[in-house]
Specification:
The structure holds 2 protein chains of 2 kinds. Chain A is of the alpha+beta class. Chain A contains 4 helices and 3 strands, in the order αβααββα. In chain A, strands 1-3-2 form a 3-stranded antiparallel sheet. In chain A, α1 crosses α2. The N terminus of chain A is likely disordered. Chain B is α+β, with helices and mostly antiparallel strands. Chain B has 4 domains: 74 residues, no CATH class; 185 residues, no CATH class; 310 residues, no CATH class; 187 residues, no CATH class. Chain B has 26 helices and 22 strands. In chain B, strands 13, 14, 15, 16, 17, 18, 19 and 20 form an 8-stranded mixed sheet that branches. Chain B has a 6-stranded mixed β-barrel with strand order 2-3-8-5-7-6. In chain B, α2 crosses α3, α17 packs across α24 and α22 packs parallel to α25. Chain B is elongated. The two termini of chain B are 67 Å apart. Chains A and B meet through α2, α3, β3 and α4 of A and α1, α2 and α4 of B.
């Protein structure tokens, strides 16, 4: 897997995770991702919007226009049931990869 | 997520992106706007001044279009969207250069048109299955008799009956012979081409009558009621498509015959013109001949029996028959697939025509590719600018491919339209045995071929400029005026060399065809062709049951015709030359042994006294036949080929056909009757029609009239005179002798016409290519030439500078063209006549013509360059 793919996959996963808690709009999603990664992930619009649209086209998200807390018109994304299944699968997958990579890196730390 | 759901989501998005593009786009803009507003709000909340927050956000979002683009890129069907843009841009680019586009599209149209037109012919004649049931199981079965000097001959009835009894490989074996019959009653009398067929013919072909029944076993046996089946055309034309015709009686040759069926529309066997079928059962006839060869035999192979197995079995049967019957010595049998047999003469010439057409297409491609290469030079700047502004190279390459495909698609559409216009002409090339059954037509296969041609040409165009686009160094075209013209020049020169080589091949083939036609026209048929009107009469046996009645009819008609103004002489014969080959028999010559090699097989013709005069067949020795021979002992004239069978002069000697013997009274010239291009294998024996004892096969029915001037003006008057003798007499094929002889080469003429067209196109396109190359050289080196001219270079120096290696490229093309032509010439051997496949005259002429045209095409831009005032050129920079 190329590096960009890995990153993109990661962002997708984070978006799905964020939206599994509650529906949100683009900026909200970006802020939540920054929050839960404790600033480890800065989400710029150039990667946020393509990712949202891609996930929507795959049927994992659904979008509709709504009003923000400040009464502004905003496009809200929410997870579909297919998206929920995908999140589950991706999470499992991620954990497997994370464990595997963690194992792979341990001896190097030890030496 | 199930597979179905996933596909569904993709399809929905795809359709939405494609058809609701505006809404999707508006939505995206609104979404980004709202994002910006929320961001501003957030910043203000954190204590930033409203204006400043706005400015900052807008600065961050300055690349908002790029964000949108990135979103567009991930959408389903994004590549289609890009393609749409490429296509739109391509169309605009092409429209901006109407001259270039028109030339390119027309050139391609000619290439694609030529290829698809000829392919339609090849397809309809050689590839498409015949309209019979399982046509690949059908074969024709022929006798092979080496002594007749022909690869295969028709079958004698007795042999047919024996094969039918013994052969196990065939589900059925049918036979037919074609004839004419006069239809009288309701309406004008009409001579109808007819076929006498064995009752199982229609079953063998697997075709059922549309109305009524087909023939069944006892039909055609002597003593059975006369029955007949009509063609769809005749049924429509003469009987108003009346279904009640079945069971009614019509009169053919004066005999009542009951109609039992009508064949379906489009059923044409064995020939287009056949209008009635009558049954004949050879197995039930007692008198059977093994010496007369006139049946065509059609067999349907049993399932699981291969053609080879059938041929092996037939071979065994033929060997047994040869041992049993002395007439069958050295006879063997061959079964050939029906379609292959019907198209056998067409195959070689069609494939050659197709080759020529493909060569024209290739030349067209090379030409347009050359145009694109030079045009690429002009576009280097555009590409460089696009690349430096961030356009990806892949996108540029795709742009080039799309443009190539656009051009070739336009070319193909115009080409297909051109091709459909040629179908009328091409129909003349369908072999007579298939005419009516098949015809060139626009169909899916043709479209597929055109599509293949388009993809091929499109790729070629895409790829040629690609090479340059790939190697392009961005700085060069932007910084300087010159581009990589050197490699472009070389690429274009190589294309031109290829064009020249292919054009030599096409021109050479054209040369061979033209020489063939000239040779054929120079062949002496043995009689004088001009100013003779001919007609075919079919005398009903009921009208003329005896030879006396028949002779009286001949005399009366000839008397009346001879008295028409402008008529020199007139006569009847059994068959005019080139109208039929049948009517031959072995002759016994007094005092000579019976040869075993068949050299004594001669053509038998009964003629009225003036017939040979009318055709101007020269009398070499002895006397002609005349009215004085009536009621006298039998006499005959022999042609020189027959005379050579005698020892010494044949005059006064006796010859015999079976029990019939006669005295030779004269020798006449040979008629080249088997075909203009075929060597004469048989002489002819002419006998006076007045001495013909029975009305039948040999009864003279073809009329020839020599006139002082244009014979066609007499046609109406001749008809009137014949009808004055018998108002019910049918008259067919009123035409000049010249047209009969021309018929021998008409197919060749169409072929030659096509070759000439292809040759002309090849020549013209190559000239265009050379013109383009030299023009490009001149423009790209204009500056240099100007400098040199200003420094005192003479025009001749400039010419050699410009032409330089182009000349060498053209010469290379010429040489490889000559080598290719030698190969192609060899494959033309079967369709050329009187000229060798390596004919050096055609070769030199085609090379010279090409060289001259190339020179002229090259000189125009060169001349223009030398005329230009160097100062103007230099100032223009």
């Amino acid at each position: 897997m190329k590096r960009t793919d890995l990153l993109r996959g990661t962002l997708d996963l984070l978006i799905l995770q964020t939206l599994s808690i509650e529906p949100n709009h683009g900026l909200g999603v970006a802020r939540r991702v920054e929050q839960i990664t404790q600033g480890g992930f800065l989400v710029n619009p150039g990667s946020l919007f393509p990712a949202l649209h891609r996930l929507e086209e795959r049927g994992w998200l659904k979008s509709e226009w709504g009003l923000s807390e400040t009464n502004r018109k905003a496009k809200y994304y929410r997870l579909t049931s297919a998206g929920r299944r995908q999140l589950k699968a991706e999470t499992a997958n991620w954990n497997r990869v994370a464990v595997a990579i963690g194992r792979a890196l341990r001896p190097a730390e030890g030496s | 997520m199930s597979f179905f759901e996933r596909v569904w989501a993709v399809v929905v998005s795809f359709l939405r992106n494609l058809f609701r593009r505006n809404k999707v786009e508006r939505d995206l803009s609104a979404e980004i706007d709202s994002y910006a507003n929320l961001l501003i709000e957030e910043k203000v909340e954190r204590g930033m001044a409203g204006d400043e927050a706005r400015r900052e956000v807008l600065r961050d979002l300055s690349r908002v279009e790029i964000v949108k683009d990135q979103v567009r890129d991930v959408r389903v069907g994004a590549s289609i969207e890009v393609l749409r843009q490429d296509a739109r841009f391509g169309v605009r680019t092409l429209i901006r250069r109407p001259g270039f586009t028109a030339i390119a599209v027309l050139t391609l149209a000619v290439g694609v048109g030529a290829t698809t037109a000829i392919f339609s012919l090849v397809d309809s004649v050689l590839l498409k299955p015949l309209p019979f049931k399982e046509p690949d199981r059908l074969t024709l079965v022929w006798e092979v008799r080496p002594r007749f000097g022909q690869p295969r001959i028709q079958v004698s009835p007795a042999n047919y009956v024996d094969w039918q009894k013994q052969a196990q490989s065939f589900a059925s074996l049918a036979a037919y012979v074609t004839n004419f019959t006069n239809l009288t009653g309701n309406g004008t009398p009409e001579r109808l081409p007819s076929a006498q067929v064995t009752p199982n013919l229609f079953q063998t072909l697997g075709v059922e009558p549309l109305v009524g029944r087909g023939f069944v076993a006892p039909d055609g046996t002597p003593g059975q009621p006369n029955v007949v089946i009509l063609s769809y055309g005749l049924w429509q034309r003469r009987f108003g498509s009346d279904r009640d015709i079945v069971g009614q009686t019509i009169h053919l040759d004066g005999e009542p015959q009951r109609v039992i069926g009508v064949m379906p529309r489009g059923f044409q066997f064995p020939a287009e013109e056949i209008q009635v079928w009558q049954p004949v059962d050879y197995g039930a006839q007692r008198v059977q001949s093994r010496d007369g060869f006139f049946l065509v035999v059609v067999g349907r192979l049993k399932p699981n029996v291969s053609l080879q197995q059938a041929n092996t079995e037939l071979e065994t049967i033929a060997r047994t028959l040869a041992q049993t019957y002395p007439q069958n010595v050295d006879s063997s049998v061959i079964a050939v697939p029906l379609q292959q047999d019907l198209a056998r003469n067409a195959r070689a010439s069609f494939l050659l025509l197709l080759t020529a057409a493909v060569l024209v297409l290739l030349i067209a491609c090379a030409n347009v590719a050359g145009l694109l290469v030079t045009r690429g030079a002009e576009r280097d700047r555009e590409f460089a600018v696009r690349t430096s502004l961030g356009g990806s190279r892949i996108r540029l390459l795709r742009q080039l491919l799309v443009e190539g495909l656009l051009l070739s698609t336009a070319g193909a559409v115009v080409g297909l339209i051109l091709a459909t216009q040629t179908f009328g002409v091409l129909k003349a090339l369908v072999p007579t045995s298939l005419r009516g059954v098949v015809a060139p037509a626009l169909d899916l296969r043709l479209l597929a071929v055109a599509f293949a041609a388009v993809s091929l040409t499109g790729l070629v165009f895409g790829l040629v400029p690609l090479r340059h686009a790939l190697r392009m160094d961005l700085r060069t075209p932007l910084n300087t005026r010159t581009t990589s013209t050197r490699s472009r020049r070389r690429a274009q020169a190589a294309l031109v060399a290829g064009e020249v080589a292919l054009a030599v091949v096409v021109l050479f083939s054209t040369g061979l065809m033209i020489r063939t036609i000239l040779n054929l026209q120079a062949v002496d048929p043995g009689f004088k062709v001009d100013n003779v009107l001919t007609a075919s009469l079919w005398m009903s046996p009921t009208d003329y049951p005896t030879s006396e009645r028949m002779n009286a009819f001949h005399r009366e008609v000839l008397d009346r015709v001879r008295h028409l103004p402008g008529v020199v002489s007139a006569g009847f014969t059994t068959f005019l030359p080139y109208t039929t080959l049948i009517g031959a028999a072995p002759v016994r010559i007094e005092g000579r042994p019976w040869p075993s090699d068949g050299s004594n097989t001669v053509v038998m013709r009964y003629v009225t006294p003036d017939f040979l005069n009318t055709l101007a067949v020269p009398l070499v020795q002895g006397r002609a036949i005349s009215d004085r021979d009536i009621g006298k002992p039998a006499v005959a004239l022999v042609s020189e080929r027959v005379a050579a069978l005698f020892e010494g002069s044949p005059v006064g000697r006796r010859i015999a056909f079976g029990p019939m013997s006669m005295t030779v009274v004269g020798v006449v010239g040979d008629v080249k009757g088997e075909g203009l291009e075929k060597p004469n294998t048989r002489g002819t024996v002419y006998m006076p029609s007045a001495q013909l004892e029975e009305v039948g096969f040999f009864t003279p029915r073809d009329l020839a009239i020599r006139t002082v001037s244009n014979p066609t003006t007499l046609a109406a008057a001749v008809r009137q005179e014949i009808w004055a003798v018998n108002p019910n007499q049918t008259i067919a094929n009123v035409r000049t002798l010249e047209s009969i002889v021309e018929g021998q080469i008409s197919e060749r003429k169409v072929q030659t016409g096509l070759f000439t067209t292809f040759g002309g196109l090849a020549l013209f396109m190559t000239a265009l290519g050379i013109y383009g190359l030299i023009s490009f050289v001149v423009t790209s080196r204009r500056h240099e030439l100007g400098v040199r001219a200003a420094l005192g270079a003479q025009p001749l120096d400039l010419v050699s500078l410009i032409a330089g290696d182009s000349v060498w490229w053209v010469i290379c093309g010429l040489i490889s063209g000559v080598a290719l032509a030698a190969i192609v010439g060899r494959s033309m051997r079967t369709i050329i006549y009187g000229v060798g496949p390596l004919d050096w005259i055609s070769l030199i002429v085609s090379a010279c013509v090409l060289g001259t045209v190339a020179g002229i095409a090259a000189l125009i831009p060169v001349w223009r360059a030398t005329q230009a005032d160097p100062m103007t050129v230099l100032r223009a920079e």
